[in-house]
Write a structure and sequence with these properties.
The protein is an alpha+beta fold and 320 residues long. The chain has 13 helices and 8 strands.
């Protein structure tokens, strides 16, 4: 049964809403490919929704969330190692194995590699010169996330963004100390490019109806970080195990979304037919609750131990 749609955004927030729809900025309904446009989690002075982003950070009344954000900021502010003068040589196979080992030892739960693609870069940002992107995933506590949109879930999201940043810096420092430039990035700020397409290319899962990735082991309850580098690596293949097929039949996130922001069917977005979440409906609820993640919390793939079994089942069905 669908949750009652009784929630309404505050007048205080809506007075800050710009004259342009976020869906228009995102390219909803567009059938021609184009670069993504900056919209949120960018420097607020650069986007029409920047005042809303500033307002979001004034809404926390939770010491738990504030402390988690402080810990995340420490990870963001931690210095990087200098690039050693003499680069170490190794084969692509050896570098790939070492990078993945260091990623897991630095705190990542999953790691994948893809060749970097210019079409992922936001309009107005320079294309990074690095050839490779190493994408890291860090799982979130199910018990914390099932309280979404309460403060415990918001704090967990911040903590895991911090862990992702620390893991990315661990990989970057390993490469830099071996004499190879490497640039880490962790959320929630967006950086110069969209990360979900890179994560899909790197084998970290399929896009779900709720707009988040579904990983065959972590489910939908994880966050991303990355490292850019030119050290020779071997790319992973996308992992298609049936998550998209499952979403075609499931509507739990649609039914549980308070602002009714999740589309039941795929939409055209910048020339691609894919799952999409209505930005103009989602963001006000997100802003007034220090974040949300109800859709991730209720996703069947997020329940502990369920994702591997579902992936096996869906892969077998797809094979038939």
């Amino acid at each position: 049964m669908k949750r009652a749609r009784s929630w309404k955004p505050s007048d205080e927030q809506m007075r800050l809403w710009p004259g342009v729809s976020g869906n228009t900025i995102n390219g909803l309904g567009e059938t021609t490919p184009r670069p993504p446009s900056p919209i949120y989690w960018h420097p607020p002075e650069r986007t029409p929704h920047g005042p809303l982003q500033r307002w979001f950070y004034t809404q926390s009344t939770s010491p738990l969330v504030d402390e988690a954000r402080k810990e995340r900021q420490k990870a963001i502010d931690a210095p990087l190692s200098a690039v050693a003068a003499t680069p170490r040589d190794a084969s692509a196979e050896a570098w790939t194995a070492e990078v993945k080992r260091v990623a897991l030892e630095s705190g990542a739960d999953v790691v994948g590699i893809a060749g970097f693609r210019p079409e992922w870069v936001f309009a107005g940002s320079p294309v990074p010169p690095e050839k490779w992107i190493i994408v890291l995933g860090v799982g979130m506590s199910y018990e914390a996330m099932r309280t979404a949109p309460d403060a415990l879930a918001a704090a967990e999201v911040s903590r895991q963004y911090g862990r992702g940043t620390r893991a990315a810096k661990g990989v970057a420092n390993f490469l830099r100390e071996a004499g190879h430039p490497a640039e880490p990035h962790g959320g929630p700020m967006a950086g110069a490019f969209v990360l979900i397409p890179a994560a899909i290319a790197a084998g970290l899962g399929e896009l779900g109806k709720h707009g988040s990735l579904i990983h065959r082991d972590l489910g939908a309850s994880f966050r991303l970080a990355c490292v850019l580098t030119d050290v020779p690596l071997i790319a992973d293949a996308p992992d298609v195990f049936g998550g998209d097929d499952f979403c075609q039949r499931c509507s739990l996130c649609v039914d549980e979304c308070p602002p009714d922001a999740i589309f039941q069917v795929k939409q055209d977005v910048r020339g691609e037919r894919r799952w999409y979440v209505d930005f103009d409906k989602c963001l006000p609820f997100f802003n007034e609750h220090m974040g949300c993640a109800i859709c991730v919390a209720v996703c069947p793939w997020s329940r502990p131990g369920v994702a591997p079994r579902l992936a096996q089942k869906m892969a077998a069905r797809k094979a038939r």
